[in-house]
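So, does this match?
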Amino acid sequence: MTFEQPTSAQWEQWLTDCQTIGVTIPAERLPWFQRFYTLLLTANQTLNLTRITAPQDFLDRNLLDSLTLSPLIAAGQRVVDIGSGAGFPAIPLALARPDVTVVAVESIGKKCRFIQETAEALDLTNLMVLNARSEDLARAGNERESFDVVTARAVAGLPTLLELCAPLAKVGGRVIAMKGLNAEAELSASQKAMRVLALRHEQSLSFSLPQLQGSRLLVFEKVGRTQDAYPRAAGLPAKKPL
């Protein structure tokens, strides 16, 4: 089946917008992003992965928004995306940054299969997929406090999100919460969570581009080990936020 692709002009503008936020995408890399769009729309017909499917919305709200993380990630770092869903921000990051390793964590099997099949179709050897809940992953031991960067988009309120993310970040690493216009209010409500989970609020980032006016990045440094009691058992961080 043939799907409407963004026009050449839209892709060119997207490349310029990427540069504005500090991300350089070589023009020869565009076919991979275009193929990703086709794969997503094809799978979305049966899997209901995302409601953001219009060409311009895909460029701005899925790709560009995901790549706002990139300037905060150093070469060679390990990044984990919690609750990756349809693969955002994991897949765009892996496409744009072959110099980093990205791990997509998703509890729903059909979404994991889509991410895995996309990684194989695009030959993304730097993208791995784990079918797991973040609570279980952090408590299992092998991945606990092993990632340089832990991020999540549209997963939970910030106190809950920090409990899910902090145990996976290494000491000295970062937790980056992808949030919206209510970010500062959520930050104010997360003081206890930061204290308990050994996190320090490093910075809050907003963006000048009109299409990113609703996007906020809340960046936290992991300043000490997270107590073994956290994260609590699956479901508790959301039911009883810190």
Summary: The domain at 8-239 is CATH 3.40.50.150 (Rossmann fold). Residues 30-47 form the longest helix (18 residues). The first strand starts at residue 78 and ends at 82.
